[in-house]
């Protein structure tokens, strides 16, 4: 099954670290499909946000155990995330917030 540009990017990951990276370094973090390649991620970001991508780094975040609640242990599943660096001077407006 081929991935479309809408299937590749799952959601943006907004944390303190990713906010710093987007503000100062021009890097944006997304949760992506597990079988998405760097080329597919580049094409999806360029198509959906109309920007030029300079570099894409990917990593698989491992599953983690959560605290025990009574006798049950919960667990978060693993996911793949992509760190997308844009060309100099470009931004994605969705991440910018109030100005």
Q: Could you name the key traits of this structure?
A:
26% helix; 3 helices; two-stranded antiparallel sheet; 99 residues; alpha+beta
- SSE string, helix = H, strand = E? HEHEHEEEE
**What is the rounded Rg?**
15 Å
Strand order of the largest sheet: 1-2-6-3
Examine the secondary-structure arrangement and name the CATH architecture.
2-Layer Sandwich
Name the overall outline. globular
- How much of the sequence is in beta strands? 35-45%
The averaged pLDDT comes out at 88
Give the CATH class: Alpha Beta
Strand segment tally: 6
- Stated plainly, the CATH topology is called Alpha-Beta Plaits
Tell me the span between the first and last alpha carbons: 41 Å
Are there runs of 5+ residues with pLDDT below 50, and where?
A: none
The percent range for helix content is 25-40%
Domain tally: 1
* CATH homologous superfamily (4th level) name: RRM (RNA recognition motif) domain
Number of helices: 3
Major beta sheet summary = 4 strands, antiparallel
**Helix vs. strand class:** alpha+beta
List strands and helices in order, with pairings:
Blueprint: H1 5-8, E1 9-12, H2 16-25, E2 27-32, H3 38-49, E3 53-61, E4 64-69, E5 72-76, E6 79-86
